[in-house]
Amino acid sequence: MDTDFSTVTPCGGDCVNCKHFGAECEGCLANGGKCVHMWENGCKVFECCEKHNVRFCGLCGEFPCDWVKENLPKWDRDAIGRLERLGAEYRKRETEFSEKLPALWEKIGSHGVMVLSTCADGRVTSRPMSVAVVGGKFYCQTDENYLKYRQLMQNGNAALCVKNFSIEGKCRSIGKPFDHDFFISAMRENFPNAVERWSSLPSERVLEITPTLIYSWDYENDMPCMEYRDFGNLTYKKEYKQ
User: Fold this and answer.
1) What is the pLDDT of residue 109?
2) CA angle 17, 18, 23 (to 5 degrees)
3) Which pLDDT tens digit goes with each residue over 21-57?
4) Fewest CB within a 10 Å sphere: which of 34, 98, 214, 236?
């Protein structure tokens, strides 16, 4: 099995292969659980996975729960078995992928001035940001009235660039700086002036960027190469350039 986990839905399906996908429906992953075929008012499986903070049922500690056993087989006889197989494959891939990460985070470092790119309404903008790296995520602060914040609230897709790394990810606002001790601690250690000048302002907000893809260029035995780390699919790839 060579699954593309970026398209796997909470119930273990794949909206991309649905006949309604495209003009009629963008798929439940893009629509927040809505499905024109079955769940126009929101999918219960989608809501439950969000509540349990898992990507799909097969990763839940309560799987297979009574509701899943009673309802999923009504429209898919192999739903339980497929979710079990998906869960096993995901955990195996996650273990192998995690082995590549310590070296990555060591190279990126705990902080840095990184270029943040955002886009909305057909306009792409970039600016340097003071960024702290905590728990495999990227954090910075900005005023909620600034263009970059407004763009990110319209379109959560963001990109960072630092050293020889390009980082693509999903961004969200998580509140005010002093609502998060870990953020203030990291910023005080690495950007103390930013904390003193900006963090207490009432309109200041913390941005959290969760990486979906990190790629970098390097040289190995005098040969240029690119390394790709796909966090959505939990895969690592190295390509040598001729």
Assistant:
1) 97
2) 105
3) 887 788 888 878 887 777 667 788 888 998 998 999 9
4) 98
Contact 240, 177 (CB under 8 A): no
DSSP-assigned beta bridge partners for residue 15: none
Among left, alpha and beta (phi > 0; psi -120 to 50; other), residue 158 is beta
Q: What is the residue-wise DSSP string for 135-183?
A: TTEEEEEEETTSHHHHHHHH--EEEEEETTEEEEEEEEE---GGG-HHH
3 state DSSP class of 35:
strand
Low-confidence ranges of the chain (pLDDT < 70): 1, 39-40
Contact between residue 168 and residue 134 where contact means Cβ atoms under 8 Å apart: no
Q: Which residues of 19-29 are buried (b: 16+ CB within 10 A; e: fewer)?
A: eebeeebebbb
Closest listed residue to residue 138, CA positions, set 100, 175, 169, 178: 169
The pTM score is 0.83
pLDDT of residue 202: 97
